[in-house]
Amino acid sequence: MPSSECLRQVLTVAQMQAAEQALVDAGTSVDELMLRAGKGAAEWVWRIGGGRPVTVLCGPGNNGGDGYVIAAEIARRGGAVRVVAPVPPKTDAARKAAEAFRGKTIAEADKADGEVLVDCLFGSGLSRPLSAEHRALLRRLRMEHTHSVAIDVPSGVGADTGAWPDGMAAWDCTLALGAWKRAHWSGEAAVKCGTLKLIDIGIGDTGTAERVSGKPKLARPAWNAHKYRRGLVGIVPGAMPGASVLAAHAAMGAGAGYVKLLADGPTAAPPPDLVLETGDLVRLLADDRLGAVLIGPGLGRDEAARLRLAAVLGSGKRLVIDADALHLLDDDLLEGADTSRIVVTPHEGELAKLCNSFGIQAGSKGDRSVALNQSTGLTVLAKGPDTLLAHAGGVHYFPQGSSWLSVAGSGDVLAGIIAARLAGGADPATAASEGVWLHHEAARAAGVAFSASALAQAVTEALEHFL
User: Fold this and answer.
1) 301: left (phi > 0), else alpha (psi -120 to 50), else beta?
2) Which of 271, 401, 418, 423 could, after both became Cys, cross-link 435 (CB 3.0–4.6 A)?
3) How far from chain centre, in Å, is Cα 294?
4) How far apart are CA 199 and CA 39, in angstroms?
5) Could you name the CATH architecture of 227-465?
6) Rounded Cα–Cα distance for residues 62 and 65 (Å)
């Protein structure tokens, strides 16, 4: 039985092919692997279909062979199933699977309407775009069926990049075979693959550094805890102090024992449950009790903001850098800073700005995030519908959060949560990961069409969920 870590690994196409070959070299036949994949997938198709007619679209390769196995298993259970095979099988394993299917196979899909469409045309190994003919066939079949299930990855999707073919509709469910692929968690595919399920075929731990983030298990404060042991968070306000106050409320909800606003000039009076300290910022940052410092929300981008960021980077504290501060960050400011203690939390535009500042070339979101981490040593939490974390230990992917998180101030709330976890003793990668899970759970608790302040108020409920 594979370990839970094994089932969290995310493999590239080349890594998956190597992992399958390792099983074959160890004595498992390709036919047996196809049976494991097909029968495992058929179980989910059977549940989704609920006895309704199923159409399996089979291609010429081993992904098509999986489809023939699925069809045979559905038929064995008494289900109505037919196979559409615009191209005959071309691999030995696929031919054997096709021969074992005794049901109806048609080359043309003129009368292939039904309830459940299963896409086994091409899998993760496809290295070229779909032909116009295959694209039109898929589009038509999707329109003619009520439910849709893709096997491994939807046909035409870039398994290593998450690139989604223009004009292709989203799928209801995608059944990953053997291991997760990047497309299940990143790029446009991450939001269009639908519900994700993993079919175990016996792939062992490949040692990859890319994993799906596991749900955290957080702890209540120790019996002898006090406000400093729970974590003192310092937040540096700027031109728009409201954003800092929003982050501060989120930090308190995420478990911080004490939150201070550290201002080097006049600022609006904070709410009564926040402490405002004013004065020389370097002096304020010298407090040894500070567990973490957050800078960026509402900071501004002028010279005064740059000086504040320089002071924070020179403090040696564990840092969360967000929002405006990401537009100011560059090699000069990072010189001499211990970047292993710093989390940056860019959205797509801020990631582009950071990559420009540090000479990172264009590529996928994951490639750019990894390159930024490797170039600077920063822990990079690249936010968005396909949030990912690039750190010294590898890359972590996350289940998609609520689309209602697309509201102004949501990022300030996330930054405050991460600062609280960091101040409480978590390492930067763990703090960032816990922050994402708490952020997503807070959105669930907040319901629909919430404001950022309502999201911040829901962080306490989210924290309780993980205790």
Assistant:
1) alpha
2) 418
3) 23
4) 9
5) 3-Layer(aba) Sandwich (3.40)
6) 5
Residue 104's φ and ψ, nearest 5 degrees, are -80, 130
390 pLDDT band (50/70/90 cuts)?
very high
Type of residue found at 382: A
Q: What is the mean pLDDT of the chain?
A: 94
The helix/strand/coil state of 163 is: coil
Write out the residue limits of the CATH 3.40.50.10260 domain(s) in the chain.
6-212
Residue 210 tokens, joined: 């890319």
- Rounded to an integer, what distance in angstroms lies between the CA atom of residue 37 and that of residue 201? 6
Please give the structure tokens belonging to residue 395: 């890359």
Intervals of CATH 3.40.1190.20 along the chain: 227-465
How big is the chain, counted in residues? 467
- Rounded Cα gap, residues 257 and 226, in angstroms: 7
Find the mean pLDDT for residues 123-134: 83
pLDDT at 111: 61
- For residues 33 and 20, what is the distance between their CA atoms, to the nearest angstrom? 8
Q: Tell me which DSSP letter residue 301 carries.
A: S
CATH superfamily name and code, 6-212:
YjeF N-terminal domain (3.40.50.10260)
Q: Which residues are CB-contacts of 160 (< 8 A; sequence separation ≥ 6)?
A: 12, 13, 181, 182, 183
Q: In angstroms, how far is CA 36 from the centroid of its own chain?
A: 27
CB atoms closer than 10 angstroms to residue 348: 14
Q: Which residues contact 415 (CB under 8 A, 6 or more apart)?
A: 247, 250, 294, 296, 297, 320, 322, 323, 345
